[in-house]
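Q: what sequence does this backbone want?
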């Protein structure tokens, strides 16, 4: 039988029937091992450190999840820190206005970034506005990272210019309210793919269309609807607007082919837009909401030919040829009536601000 090994120098001797302590609770004074010692942290210290670790983990996860797209969104990624930004620069754009404006800004960013050979990132606010409705794919730039980047603001007019093909700067933020087809029509198929409706949005709209038909606006609208009635057999017009009371008062629905479908809620436009975009043809009044619905729907499209009053300052920043495609047909409205009687009269004598967008669908 082998005898137990001798104790480590400096440890108290053990009796033959005892097992040596491998980790004594207390080292003999004056005999440290290699100059080190052991201490036992108090419960309060361990608890304090535990709270710090938990709080740090929760904060970090919350920060990262802030840029994760919702379950409806197309796969995307968020940029969190400046060190993870792409080398060679990047493009982003301001997120301003409502749905139609932000669709125009997204499409312009997509097209100009591709044209200039730069990656494009959208603000988190734009992702929140568009991702619940469309299968957009551009990655998201978190506002924390965006605030640390030395951006060069680059203002855009609402029409394409040759100088936009070679935009200088490394980190460029496009500004303004661009929505013109002249920016992105050369990549129309890609833009239409970016603005593909999510299944649940499309199915809800299609369920309504199967029950009723589709959308609507007057004077100008009477001529526009008459044009479709003369060329299409048994069309149905569906009206969506942020001024539904005005629409019901001014649109003649006595023929039974007009359906007032819009709920007029500007803060939740997905249902109205889905209805409009899935129609066969469009009659629009004013605003980017109707322009985008018509652009995605295709077919025959009628717009206001005289978009502004003759002396409106808006004429300086708005070019009809940049807003409306050449194949779209314009019908003039009567601008001679009292502007106070018509909502949104500075831009159109016949419609509310976002516009009553009547569209037709064949049964």
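A:
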């Amino acid at each position: 039988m082998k005898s137990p090994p001798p104790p480590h120098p400096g440890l108290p001797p053990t009796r033959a029937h005892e097992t040596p302590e491998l980790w004594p609770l207390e080292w003999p004074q004056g005999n440290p091992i290699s100059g080190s010692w052991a201490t036992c942290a108090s419960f309060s210290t361990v608890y304090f450190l535990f709270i710090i670790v938990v709080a740090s983990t929760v904060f970090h996860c919350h920060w990262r999840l802030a840029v994760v797209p919702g379950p409806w969104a197309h796969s995307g990624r968020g940029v969190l820190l400046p060190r993870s930004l792409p080398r060679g620069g990047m493009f982003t754009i301001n997120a301003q206005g409502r749905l139609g404006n932000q669709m125009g800004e997204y499409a312009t960013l997509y097209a100009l970034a591709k044209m200039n050979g730069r990656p494009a990132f959208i603000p988190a606010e734009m992702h929140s506005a568009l991702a619940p409705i469309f299968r957009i794919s551009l990655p998201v730039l978190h506002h924390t990272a965006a605030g640390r980047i030395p951006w060069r603001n680059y203002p855009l007019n609402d029409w394409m210019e040759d100088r936009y093909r070679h935009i200088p700067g490394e980190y460029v933020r496009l500004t303004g309210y661009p929505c013109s087809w002249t920016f992105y029509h050369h990549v129309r198929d890609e833009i239409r793919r970016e603005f593909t409706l999510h299944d649940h949005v499309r199915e809800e709209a299609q369920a309504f269309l199967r029950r009723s038909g589709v959308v609507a606006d007057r004077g100008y609208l009477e001529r526009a609807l008459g044009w479709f009635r003369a060329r299409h057999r048994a069309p149905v017009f569906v009206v969506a607007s942020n001024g539904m009371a005005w629409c019901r008062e001014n649109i003649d629905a006595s023929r039974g082919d007009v359906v007032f479908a819009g709920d007029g809620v500007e803060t939740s436009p997905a249902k109205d837009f889905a209805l409009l975009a899935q129609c066969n043809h469009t009659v629009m009044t004013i605003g980017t909401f109707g322009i985008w619905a018509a652009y995605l729907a295709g077919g025959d499209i009628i717009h206001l030919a005289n978009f502004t009053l003759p002396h409106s300052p808006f004429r300086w920043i708005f070019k009809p040829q940049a807003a409306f495609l050449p194949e779209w047909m314009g019908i003039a409205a009567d601008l001679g009536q009292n502007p106070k009687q018509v909502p949104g009269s500075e831009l159109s004598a016949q419609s509310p601000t976002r516009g009553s967008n009547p569209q037709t669908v064949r049964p």
